[in-house]
Amino acid sequence: MQFLSRSFVSFALLLTVTSTCNLALANSGAARPAPPDSLHAVQSLVSFATKHLHIPYRSGGASKKGFDCSGFVRYCFDKWNISLPHSSSAQAEHGETVKLDDARPGDLIFFKGNSAASERIGHVGIITEVAPGYVRFIHSAWKGGIRYDLLNASYYQKRFVAIKRLMD
């Protein structure tokens, strides 16, 4: 009986010490995962843009009621206090030009307008994923509203113009 009594006291003491250590560790912040708000700004931007999938296209649109391509990009970057004009060609004047091989999520990707023969930028999106030979971007398209597309699709490949970086 005395053995059981000592064992119980030892076990209770061990539980108390373990609980106290765990509470101290939790309160120190040493082992806490980062809250979702503290994600890297670029990851947060891409996540924010993704939350708007399937919102319809609206010419000149810049709200959740509907976006055109540059209105969507402007809306997203505005959340990070980066002001952009409401025109894809004017947005192309901002940021640092980046080679396709150096593209990263969060970069802007620019395309010619309706005609691949045109010299004028007429479309913009936000790159969401990059791998060798693979660039996925989110944008507001006339058909489908906010959606993902791939640069290697012939429609976009023929119209690709440039990539610009606004965030590090």
From TrEMBL:
Residues 39-167 form the NlpC/P60 domain. GO terms for biological process: proteolysis. Keywords: Hydrolase, Protease, Signal, Thiol protease. The keyword Signal applies. Pfam families: NLPC_P60. GO terms for molecular function: cysteine-type peptidase activity. Residues 1-26 form the signal peptide. It comes from the Bacteria. Belongs to the peptidase C40 family. This is NlpC/P60 family protein. It comes from Dyadobacter flavalbus.
